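retry 2 of 3: previous attempt timed out while embedding zinc ion. Reduced batch size to 1 and resubmitted. Inputs unchanged:
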Amino acid sequence: MNQQGYVATPPYSQSPPGIGLSPPHYGHYGDASHTASQPGMMKPAGPLGTASPGGMLPSGPPPPGTHQFGHNGAHASGHPPQRFPGPPPINNAAPSYTSYSPSPQPAYPSPVSTSVTQLNSQLSAMQINTYGSSMGPPSQGPPGPPSTAQIQGPPRPTQPSILQPGLQVLPPPPTALNGPGPSPLSPPVHRPDGLAGPAPPNAQYQHPPPPGQPMGAGYSPQQANFGPPMPGTQLSYPGGFPGGPAQMAGPPQPPKKLDPDSIPSPIQVIENDRATRGGQVYMTNTRGQVPPLVTTDFMVQDQGNASPRYIRCTTYCFPCTSDMAKQAQIPLAAVIKPFATIPSNETPLYLVNHGETGPVRCNRCKAYMCPFMQFIEGGRRYQCGFCNCVNDVPPFYFQHLDHMGRRLDHHEKPELSLGSYEYVATLDYCRKNKPPNPPAYIFMIDVSYSNIKNGLVKLICEELKTVLEKLPKEEQEETSAIRVGFITYNKVLHFFNVKSNLAQPQMMVVTDVGEVFVPLLDGFLVNYQESQSVIHNLLDQIPEMFADSNENETVFAPVIQAGMEALKAAECPGKLFIFHSSLPTAEAPGKLKNRDDRKLVNTDKEKILFQPQTNVYESLAKDCVAHGCSVTLFLFPSQYADVASLGLVPQLTGGTLYKYNNFQMHLDSHQFLNDLRKDIEKKIGFDAIMRVRTSTGFRATDFFGGIFMNNTTDVEMAAIDCDKAITVEFKHDDKLGEDSGALIQCAVLYTTISGQRRLRIHNLGLNCSSQLADLYKSCETDALINFFAKSAFKAVLHQPLKVIREILVNQTAHMLACYRKNCANPSAVSQLILPESMKVLPVYINCLLKSCVLLSRPEISTDERAFQRQLVMTMGVADSQLFFYPQLLPIHTLDVKSTSLPAAVRCSESRLSEEGIFLLANGLNMFLWLGVSSPPEVIQGIFNVPSFAHISTDMTLLPELGSPYSQKLRMIMSIIQQKRPYSMKLTIVKQREQPEMIFRQFLVEDKGLYGGSSYVDFLCCVHKEICQLLS
Ligand SMILES: [Zn+2]
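retry 2 succeeded.
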């Protein structure tokens, strides 16, 4: 099923001849444009673009024989090397299903493995047979396959997480796979485990289903929610629902002992890492070292490899061969955040200036001088760590070697001893060989009727008067070099001349939106300080100027076009800040119609909702990137605005999309103004082009992020700021050596905020191993989730969502089954054994599967889904971790004297209590949830009202009170907010009131109200898949 409609490795037009590996390229945005690059539009290929002879392959000539393992279908193991690997061939799968179902086995084998110590104690609580009474006799559970014969190779010492026998032998709980979905309107049922019957300990919070409630209703279509490719889903759980769904409807059963604490906890993993690695100095001198988690606070000392703040990897040990990689199916990827913010107690990047000669580079692969270059022959030559080419050391760069073979100036030169540093770029690296001009920011305000009327235009103009004082500037500079310009628009465009010597600003109207031109050059882009009084004059006048306008229609593409033309005319890169509200319906290029068709949801055509409705925006984005014009969009929609189309240019130009639904001045201005302030001040590089070089044996094959690509190697970005990350996937070209490792060099050529052309270099060395166990030991789940999310969200444009979900489940099972088969100690196959580094992978994958992008929900609009899709595409690892698994903090137990954050709890309703107050944050939203019996003294302290009943939910900011509770809570909120790119809107949620439905969707370990499994159910499903793969 999911092999059709899903192209594993389509003919790849750009594969250089002789390179057999066909990178899966489906789903690549704008494939067409990749094949037809237009020389006139491209950035200067320059030193980044001109790589090795042949141009495509930085790592030297293709090694002999590479073609033999790359082609479609050439994989021996039956694990296709797709991006989203499909299911095992039918002829494999079918027998395993049949053998799976009927044969009874001793239902719940007792733990036998001696290596199973780690989770044994907590798992003993997980007495599976407690299901028997409500779900049918235990013997009806499907047996695991015979427990022999699965273990291959010598057992290696590992620290697996082992779940107790028979997780998969459970009769199916009413999961999204096969279970009843609650009616959207029914009161949420408290079932942390998604199972019928058992009342949780804190049953006071539970609303048991009314007796006789037909829970079988809405039974079938849920199969699609995550779909392991099982021919006949129900068959695969043969023990399920022996008596039919009616059995589920009885009165609550006596409490069962299935303890959610018995399955791996993300919170525990986070806390353990904090306890062992928090507060420490992380030295980057060791190749292949796994860094602390993104959730841990630590300090980095660069000793030859890039800080994990810049690069994180899905695994820090690559498999030596592509066969191994196919076997494990662990994506080999790096999440690169080249402009990541560095804490003030860490050293900023050094700047290396070699004057007119420029950086020293390998003659063959053009890699930059770095710690991976090996000096030989007394220092006269060096061997490139990437392509092995032996180069002469340029005379100006010569230095003698010490007795260790190291240059005497090793510690004096950042490029010899550090993982990250910058070079001053020479004119060769500049457009037209001319030094660039400093960038410009253009503010473009939609002054249509509704924006004037609701006060938004006035708010923006007022804010600009102060925020322009904070334009980013170099440390040593007095004022910012960034120039500013202003445009307003509705159906037509108004340019403003704000030259410093004018008494009054002058307006020029461009009515020809079909072919926008820039009516003035002199006086449009100005230095803010010099023109301050004219600018303030203008900002005061704008709201008045359009006060009587009744114009409701707007244009959009011409606005971007105008901004780009203005930057082009001024020969500078820059950023457009567009403040826009509505679907652009006025007659003009990029005109859009309302095509929000909810009927497409849950069909194979759902992907259309995520695609732009015209190709105008893509070609506009391409032009913008070619001219270094980044677009940031502040969107204030009151109805469908077609984010999939409007958001495309921001996404592809490295800009940011901010969205404020039904903007209300008194509730939302705080969030908007914080976003605007933060965005204007951001550290950012312009007109950027990134190249990722690798040592021989592997190469970068796919890129995900706010990027544009005219060819297969140069990642172009109109701008890239401190919050944006590019995820890069690697594939093998050849064998990797354990000795040489896998080396990565990421070089970003860009223009600084003051107009300097620079190169930022990040180097990272990874280990290589021919032992699968080493690979699994070095994985990072948070980075894996970042990769899976981006590749799935990219595929959303081209694939049915159901197929994508199936592939995700399937690949998860493959990765874990491979570990089970090759790395874990012998034990009953019915045990779920998870590698230590991936023990919370299932819960995160389930969160991803339940995200509104991959699984529609009635209350989530098409625009919101498109918005979240775009957002995730540019996220770094820390942001995606929080986004998919929100932080849930108990507030009622706060120690107001402590300065630290309270320990988080798992995102499940079972962790809430009527007496509790909880704060939840995911990077976009923040909720303060109040139980009906919240302590009055805490309520008084936070809200200054006497009781729960008095709390108003009509606020997005907490009152600033002097009480310890108020101060502490607001401090916690600001700490959580601090590191996040988006200002989170606060929603007050009172237990058992309407907004609680929205809040519940963030309790990601629970079964979704509209589909999506609970963590427990998903784990059962994955375990079952694993057993099938092993049988
Ligand atoms: Zn080289």
